[in-house]
Amino acid sequence: MDEIVCANTAFRYWRCPPQVRNLYPRLPNSEDGWRALSQAPFVTDVLKTPIIAVASPGCCNHHSGLRSTIRWEGASDAGTTIDTHLGFSVTNPLNTLFTMTRFVSQIDLVLAMYELCGWFTVFEPTPAAEMQLKMAAKAVHQSSTQDLFELDEGEDEAPWKRVYARVTVKASENEGQTDRHEDSRKVTKLKGTSLWMRKPLIELSDLHQFADKVKSQMWGKQFYDAAQQVIGIAASPLEVAGILLLNRPRRLGGAGFTNVYANDLTPLSISAQSIAGQKVCYGDIVIVNPILMKGAIIEIQGEVIHGSGAILDHDAERMTALQSMGFDVFLVTHDMLNDSKQLDTIVRSVCVRLGIRYKAKTEAMKSAETRLRANVLCNWLEIGN
After folding, report:
1. Do 103 and 384 meet the contact criterion of CB atoms below 8 Å apart?
2. Which CA distances in Å does 361 have to 253, 344, 347, 348?
3. Collapsing DSSP states into helix, strand and coil, what is residue 190?
4. The 294-301 sheet, strands edge to edge
5. C-alpha distance across the termini of the chain, in Å
6. Where are the alpha helices (DSSP H) in 253-357?
7. pTM for the whole structure
8. How far is Cα 245 from Cα 377, in angstroms, rounded to an integer?
9. Contact, 262 vs 283, CB < 8 A?
10. What is d(CA 1, CA 83) in angstroms, rounded to the nearest whole number?
11. Per-residue pLDDT for the chain (385 aa), expressed as one digit of tens each?
12. Coil vs helix vs strand at 167
């Protein structure tokens, strides 16, 4: 394919784990016709149609069910595109976000920014790809996040780490890894979710520098405004939802906390180190009152694990260590974020602990919160569709 894939189509490419991309053959050339191109497995499974691409110089725009083209002067700049082994070029992650600006709402653009700047991605393989992944999978033993991404010999890009959830099924349906309970007709097994862990594709500082650079261009102001809402590096969609619901201005549906940090590094005292077994900890969401030098930590609790139960034990040790140092640690689940009363109770408690004046929301603010909650606690697979 001769065109440069960009915008939402490129976003779907960057969401696809490298071990999944490697399962697919190269795309046919555009000379073979767009209908043949649209039926290529990687297009039907990952890129989807219409394919959004940069219009060739001197050519008119195309808009059909198979492809849509845009005019973009930045396509000729050095380093804006990357050649793939699948036979086409794609915009780099930063320019992918920039070209998405004209196709998605601002809140979806913010979510996409958090994802490409974060330690996670959301991708659901097709059943056929799922089967091939299982056949190719090696035994995965307990490991930390930091050593999940080491390159094996001969690999151009490290595989991404899939996140698993425990599900209970009937014994007759048992497949793969299980924890069998005696005298029970059901077993617990690990099922791959649509959440994957990987190194950030964009440095947060690069996002803000790029946003400042393009804000005078067409669509640049919208991009700049969205980038200002990305305040840290998140490790899951639920963390992003928590950050936005707590940090966004009250008129836009958030709680209005200003000193909010994502995955903030906290040095541990000697006694806390003995509990956690490490010298530093990361709080999922840290809210600080700099005047009183007090901090509260919001720990986001999801129903997923990273291959083994060890990471859950580590989370408990980390929270205990932080509490021993005087931090107020709040355990927050998806259901709590999704319930206006429970979220308000958490906000009120944080205000009390940090010496911040609590203010009840007006009806307009509550309506804005309802809209925000629907946008951030959404099906992340639908972003950019």
Report:
1. yes
2. 9, 9, 11, 11
3. strand
4. 260-267, 280-289, 294-301, 328-333
5. 22
6. 270-276, 310-324, 334-337, 340-354
7. 0.86
8. 10
9. no
10. 11
11. 677 999 999 999 999 999 999 999 999 876 767 778 888 999 999 999 999 998 765 565 666 678 888 888 776 777 899 999 999 999 999 999 999 999 999 999 999 999 999 999 999 999 999 999 888 765 444 444 445 455 454 455 688 999 988 777 776 654 544 555 555 577 777 788 999 999 999 999 999 999 999 999 999 999 999 999 999 999 999 999 999 999 999 999 999 999 999 987 777 778 777 777 777 777 889 999 999 888 899 988 875 544 444 344 456 777 777 777 777 889 899 999 999 999 999 999 999 999 999 999 999 999 999 999 999 998 999 998 8
12. strand
Residue owning tokens 């799922």: 130
Residue 118: what residue type? G
The amino acid at 263: N
Q: How many residues does the chain have?
A: 385
Helix 237-247 / helix 106-117 crossing angle, nearest 10 deg: 130
